[in-house]
Amino acid sequence: MNREQSQPEGEGTAPIVVHRAAGTGGRRVSIRARVAGLAHSDADLIEFLRRAGLPDAWELLDDPHWVDWQDGRPHEYGTG
Question: What's this model's pTM, rounded to 2 decimal places?
């Protein structure tokens, strides 16, 4: 996924969604509506994004055009 070519076009279209914390800990991550895995830390999230072709993903985590942190505070992966 090339960052320039894949940048979202409109509001509410963040291609990366970090869902609410699971009862057992961690947060499900979806990239372009496909489940990438269960992240327990930013490092896990970055690895999912790296595998999806975004090697500079650290820069994207706090950009709401790229990442939609749902039902919880960004960068928190607790048991909710």
Answer: 0.82
